[in-house]
Amino acid sequence: MNSYTSSSAPDCDDARQAFEVTHPFHPLCGREFELVTYRHNWGENRVYFYDDQGRLKAIPAGWTNIGPDSLFEVISSGRSSFRTSDLLELVDLVAGLREIGHE
């Protein structure tokens, strides 16, 4: 392992590895992509992949089925489909729609 390799990165061993986007609110949820690399950038672990237009993209590893489970997943043990912050954001969105008359 060199100094540029994350100790928590998945072991690729030159084999192609795919991942699935699992974050329920991400527009790519349910899609599978080929993993280009896995790195710790912007304060978190991120997966890099090419989108449908061939552009290199990155998303947090916690939004995929790669890497360790998020703290929320560990604590909830599958008992909840939503995080508190997501539910609070939904409440704000519904309240905003009611204010403009979309009930």
Walk me through the structure:
This protein is an alpha+beta fold and 103 residues long. The chain has one domain. Helices cover 21% and strands 22% of the residues. The protein has 2 helices and 5 strands. The strands form 2 sheets. A 3-stranded antiparallel beta sheet has the order 3-4-5, with no helix packed on it. Strands 1-2 form a two-stranded antiparallel sheet. Strand 4 (44-50) and strand 5 (56-60) form a beta hairpin. The longest helix has 16 residues, at 84-99. The protein is globular. The protein starts with 17 loop residues before the first strand and ends with a helix. Residues 1-8 have low confidence and may be disordered.
Summarize the structure in short:
This protein is globular. It contains two helices and five strands, in the order βββββαα. 21% of the residues lie in helices and 22% in strands.
Write out key terms for the chains shown.
alpha+beta, three-stranded antiparallel beta sheet, two-stranded antiparallel ribbon, globular, disordered N terminus
Write the layout of secondary structure elements.
Layout: E1 18-20, E2 32-34, E3 37-41, E4 44-50, E5 56-60, H1 71-76, H2 84-99
Antiparallel strand pairs: 1-2, 3-4, 4-5
Kindly provide the radius of gyration, computed on alpha-carbon positions and rounded to a whole number of angstroms.
17 Å
Largest sheet: 3 strands, antiparallel
Count the E strands. Answer: 5
Q: How many separate domains make up the residues?
A: 1
The percentage helix is 10-25%
Task: Characterize the overall form.
Answer: globular
Low-confidence stretches: 1-8
Order of SSEs, N→C? Answer: EEEEEHH
β-strand amount: 15-25%
How far apart are the first and last residues' alpha carbons, in Å? 56 Å
On the 0-100 scale, what is the average pLDDT?
A: 80
Strand order across the biggest sheet? 3-4-5
